[in-house]
Write a structure and sequence with these properties.
By secondary structure, the protein is an alpha/beta fold. Helix content is about 40%, strand content about 15%. The protein has a domain of about 210 residues: 3-Layer(aba) Sandwich (Rossmann fold), CATH 3.40.50. The structure holds nicotinamide-adenine-dinucleotide and 2'deoxy-thymidine-5'-diphospho-alpha-D-glucose.
């Protein structure tokens, strides 16, 4: 094996797709998945590839500096692709400290471990920090986030991601660490944890439960299929310029209400329900505190410089995603057992079932 790469957060939604892509596409790389297995981490996401000879799992908390140092000493990685994070905005509103610890302290812990291991010999080395478009704040009806848009994070989640982005860049400028970053829009696809809008709505519709829409449903998100994000990460890891940032987005802007109406039509068809039946489940609820109005990404730099383009429109990707959830009832039923119901009750207890 000619390279060892640590992927953090590899048991989560996006991380598991990145791990699968790297393990299968690069048999000459050793992929070490470092994950604490929080409520969002699920080794079932990797059950199809976890016996591959180039895959290793390390259950470690990225805020545990001794544990992380031991992992780096054991595996001596040439590269790090850092995805581990607390990722849900609503949980950051109720429990901000978890986000400060994992997203900020955890990122610095990894930067320190890479810096100590590489010790100024940066040839062939790379630290890739995966981030979000939410660091740029909220747009009005017009315009797009570019790589030079000023940071203006507005939730504890996005503020913690912004801090981690600044720290990753600071390690590049101060110590010369070979750091590259990307900021991506909303992902969707298989293995998405059902606290996020699309998988939550799919799960509720299949169970005939109300589908909660915050506020008036006019907030806009730019949706990207997770396979397109994983392809972008592969390209940026191999071809991106050190010190640079790349925006990744799907050119798929939808208001939440239009998106959920589309999903309802797809679900009616797949579940052989009467047209319009699932839409009856839509329930407008109290808005998210500080709810960002619109995100939209200009990904022309990534398209121009590295030749990436999003391959899937939302209509097509959503159809495939619904198929995946309906074919993987065992996965979703396991994920929503236990703590999930307690979370759901706290977050949505106001809605009558
Ligand atoms: P996720 O919540 O599905 O997965 C996060 C993973 O990190 C889980 O496996 C969890 O166990 C692990 N983890 C959490 N805390 C940890 C810790 N202290 N130590 C080790 N592991 C820990 O998240 P996701 O949606 O797959 O997001 C992955 C990354 O991509 C995050 O950095 C997120 O900010 C970024 N991102 C996500 C989206 C999106 O739409 N989901 C869009 C842009 C960027
Ligand atoms: O933009 C990238 C970000 O996208 C990532 O960095 C985050 O990790 C990821 O969680 C996602 O953040 P959002 O807050 O945009 O995603 P979420 O699925 O939570 O919400 C999408 C939209 O739907 C948002 O406007 C809030 C709304 N919403 C969400 C939930 C969970 C509802 O109306 N009802 C809900 O029950």
């Amino acid at each position: 094996m000619n390279k060892t790469i640590i992927i953090t957060g590899g048991a989560g939604f996006i991380g598991s797709h990145v791990v699968r892509l790297f393990v299968t596409r690069y048999p000459e790389y050793r992929i070490v998945n470092v994950d604490k297995l929080t409520y969002a981490g699920n080794l079932e996401n990797l059950s199809d590839i976890d016996r591959m000879p180039n895959y290793v799992f390390e259950r470690t908390d990225i805020t545990d500096s001794a544990g992380i140092q031991a992992v780096f000493d054991r595996h001596r990685p040439d590269g790090v692709i850092h995805l581990a994070a607390e990722s849900h905005v609503d949980r950051s509103i109720s429990h901000p400290m978890d986000f400060i610890m994992t997203n900020i302290v955890g990122t610095v812990t990894l930067l320190n471990a890479a810096r100590a291991l590489w010790d100024g010999n940066f040839s062939g080395k790379r630290f890739y920090h995966v981030s979000t478009d939410e660091v740029y704040g909220s747009l009005g009806a017009e315009g797009f986030f570019t790589e030079t848009t000023a940071y203006d994070p507005r939730s504890p989640y996005s503020a913690s991601k912004a801090a981690s982005d600044h720290l990753a860049r600071a390690y590049h400028h101060t110590y010369g660490l070979p750091v590259v970053l990307s900021n991506c829009s909303n992902n969707y696809g298989p293995n998405h944890f059902p606290e996020k809008l699309i998988p939550l709505a799919i799960n509720n519709i299949r169970n005939n439960r109300p589908v909660p829409i915050y506020g008036s449903g006019e907030n806009v998100r730019d949706w990207l299929h997770v396979h397109d994000h994983a392809r972008a990460i592969d390209l940026i890891f191999h071809k991106g310029r050190n010190g640079d940032t790349y925006n990744i987005g799907g050119n798929n802007e939808w208001t939440n209400i239009d998106l959920i109406r589309l999903l309802c039509r797809i679900m009616d068809r797949k579940l052989n329900r009467k047209a319009g039946a699932s839409e009856q489940l839509i329930t407008f609820v109290k808005d998210r505190a500080g709810h960002d109005l619109r995100y939209a990404i200009d990904s022309s730099k990534l398209q121009r410089e590295l030749g990436w383009t999003p391959s899937m429109k939302l209509e097509q990707g959503l159809e495939k995603t619904v198929d995946w959830y309906l074919a993987n009832e065992k996965w979703i039923n396991a994920v929503v057992s236990g703590d999930y119901e307690r979370y759901y009750e706290k977050q949505y207890g106001q809605i009558k079932n």
